[in-house]
Amino acid sequence: MTTLSMKKPGTTKLARRKDPLEIIATIVLTLFALMIAVPFYNVVIVSITGQAEYLKAGGLMLFPTKPDFDSYTRLFQNKLLWTGYSSTLQIVALGLPLNVLLTFCMAYGLSRKGWPGRKLVFVLVLITMIFNGGIVPLYLLMKELKLLDNLWSVVFAGGLNTFYMIITKNFIESLPESLIESAHLDGANEWTILFRIVMPLSKPILATIVLFYAVDRWNEWYNSMIFLTTPTKFTLQLVLRNIVINSEMQGAAASSGAVSTAAAFTMGVKMCAVIMTMLPIMCVYPFLQKHFAKGIMVGAIKA
């Protein structure tokens, strides 16, 4: 017995037909992807290009004929690079749990509608997005706490981000209120509700703010420049900044016949510094990507 498949006439043609808006969106998104991918590819190529070939190509090439890793060698030979990695990892390890704890505690507190003074506190928090006390009072505070030239000064200086707290608060408000009410009826206190009910249900927004804070901590350089004075305690970004500035100063001090060569070497060092900065974050991001889009979209919608 043979089974005949019945197809409606024109079904294949309709399935193959694409919406013009879909085609336009695909083209636009492809162009945006190229706008991001091409500069990044050029960064990688310049970092492994020799000075003479870089000058000959005018700065843009598909692939170097003779790859040269001299810029990486010079960068890795600097001992401060490894102390910078160590300091940055310590700041991430110490600061990230503190950021997440403070953000969730304040977001949960401001999300409870029955708490007195909630709106006033929320308005005061919003004001800090526009106005702040400045770096001088913060420096004097760290001096009074005897935290100058200490990594804890950099950790405490970025304890909470107002924007991240707001999207976390909106996410918590989107959770069913009946869950929290049931927990109250069962005798759970606020800490139990926060850590055993709210946070397990907030994995999307938790992954989002962890990524945000991790990037902020990894890119930390301004506070370390203000509060740290010992070179061996400098963060990675500050170390790379100093390496690039020193290479530029060496190029400026060179003779007129060697200026172009020095400039090419400076560009290679810059590109190496960019790669050394982005690589760790690029390795972490794929593990959080599945939660990232959901968390940022839900947290950005006001409940």
Topology:
Blueprint: H1 11-16, H2 20-47, H3 51-57, H4 70-76, H5 79-111, H6 118-127, H7 135-144, H8 151-157, H9 162-173, H10 177-185, H11 190-201, H12 203-218, H13 222-227, H14 236-253, H15 259-300
Helix pairs in contact: 2-15, 3-15, 4-15, 5-8, 5-9, 5-12, 5-14, 9-12, 9-15, 10-11, 12-15, 14-15
What does this structure look like?
By secondary structure, the protein is mostly helical. The chain has two domains: 23-68; 80-235 and 268-300, MetI-like fold, CATH 1.10.3720. It is globular and about 75 Å long. It contains 15 helices and no strands. It has helices at 11-16, 20-47, 51-57, 70-76, 79-111, 118-127, 135-144, 151-157, 162-173, 177-185, 190-201, 203-218, 222-227, 236-253, 259-300. Mean pLDDT is 81; it is low at 1-6, 11-15 and 258-264. α5 packs parallel to α8 and α9 packs antiparallel against α12.
State the total count of DSSP E strands. Answer: 0
Q: CATH top level of the largest domain?
A: Mainly Alpha
Query: Structural class, please?
Result: mainly alpha
Shape label: globular
What's the mean pLDDT score? 81
CATH architecture of the largest domain: Orthogonal Bundle
Intertermini distance: 59 Å
Sheet-strand content, in percent, reads under 5%
CATH fold naming of the largest domain: MetI-like fold
Order of helices and strands: HHHHHHHHHHHHHHH
- The structural domain count equals 2
Rg over CA atoms? 26 Å
